[in-house]
Amino acid sequence: MIKLGKPETVTIFNQRSLSTLVRAIKLSYCQFSLILVRCNYVALQKKVAEELEVANQLPLPIGKIYLPESITTLFTPIYLEFKSQSLSCLMVFGLESVKAIEQLLVATNQVRDEFRKNLTLPLVIWVTDDILQKLTRFAPDFKSWASASIKFALPPNELLALWQQIAQDFLEQLLSAKAEFISNQELALAPGCQRRQALEFAREDLSIDEINLEPSLEAVWLLILGRDAYV
Question: Chain-wide mean pLDDT for the chain?
């Protein structure tokens, strides 16, 4: 756990992480390497990827793959994208949304040698804290090819803003439904859903910086938890 605190501290931390990522890609140019980037927030992942492109420090375009939740294999879509164009690196997003993630990681570990045999570029996989743990458990040999993960974080003010926005959207959706019941699954707030994960990660990150949610936001969290029993 990393306690970062002030927004300016987080900005400096992320700038260093971005420099580390650029350096890792450049060092592995035209050869396979596995780079794990740890970031719990989809919006921040997108922002960092855009900053990497705008910086224009790489000789060729950056390839991107957004995994559908129904995908069952990792190597095939990566290989097809690699063969379609010349790239500085290939970034993979969306592992946290894959439904059969454990099976996918086990299969990835079993065919890990195919990555080294067939790819000649750095493979940058974006992971959340949860996915990183699952990589260690279900694809340890594949994960061992990567050095320490490169982390990006959100400052406390943005974590609170994220919480407030999701809470506001949640309450507005409940009000608009009137007497009709809408499940957490339909609201993307069931366990494992993207918005639910964002709330959980933000809550944990805020606690690391010893920041508590406002009572109104804590009440929304308890309401979400209480609705889990209803499908």
Answer: 92
